[in-house]
Amino acid sequence: MTEKRINYQSVVLIILIPAALVVFFALRQKDSLLEYLKPDTAAVNLPAPDFTLPDLDGRMVSLFGYRGKVVVVNVWATWCPPCVDEMPSLEKLYQEFKAENFAILAVSIDSAGIKAVAPFMKKHGLTFTALIDSQAAVRASYKTTGVPETFIINKQGILVKKVIGPLNWAAPEILRYIRKLIQEPFSD
Q: Is there a cis peptide before residue 148, judged by omega within 30 degrees of 0?
C-alpha cells in the first residue's frame, strides 16, 4: 500500500510541476500573449485606425482628414523589391483618379525616413503623397506582417479591402473597383 501511495504522489508531482511552470511562464508573458490574441485593430468592415504622420515637406497628415475620399494606404519601403515593382501602377492609379474624391497615402517604413524616401519618389516620378513612419505607428495599428501591404478605405473611413503583397494597381478590375467606391455616396 505504501508503494502505491508513493507512485501516486510521484505521478501527481510529475504532472503538477510542469503545469505550474507553464502557468508561471504564461503569466510572465501575459502582456505579449494578450497582444498576440487581441483582434486586429485594422479589420475589414470596421473603421480604419486613424494616424498622423509627416509628409515629405514635414507637414503632419492625418488619415481622418481624408474623410469623404477613397483612400489607398500603401505600407512600403524603398528597399523592398515588390514594393518598388508596384509603384508605377500605384502612380497610374493615382493619375486616373486624382481629380476625384481619391487619395493615395504611401506610408514608408524606411528607418532613414525622408533621406531615403524623397530621392526615391523623385527618381521614380511618383506624385502621390508619401508619409514617413519611422516609428512604426501604422505598422502597429494596422498589424502589418510585411511589405507591401495595402488598405483600401471608403469615403466613410471604413476599411473595405486589405491586400497583402504587390498588385498591379492599374489593372482594369482594380480601376473598376476603385471607381465604384468613388461613385458611392458619402454619408457622414
A: yes
CA distance 66 to 64: 5
pLDDT of amino acid 59: 98
Grid cell in block for residue 155: 469615403
pLDDT tens for each residue of 121-152: 999 999 999 999 998 899 999 999 999 999 99
What's the pLDDT tens digit per position in 43-64? 999 999 999 999 999 999 999 9
Provide the grid cell at 182: 468613388
Q: From CA 130, how far away is CA 108, in angstroms rounded?
A: 7
In whole angstroms, give the CA distance from residue 52 to residue 59. Answer: 10
Burial tier of 97 (Cβ tally within 10 Å: 0-12, 13-18, 19+): buried
CA distance 27 to 47: 32
131, 105 contact by CB (below 8 A): yes
Sheet holding 70-76, edge to edge: 129-132, 102-108, 70-76, 149-153, 159-164
State the pTM of this model: 0.79
pLDDT digits over 164-176, tens only? 999 999 999 999 9
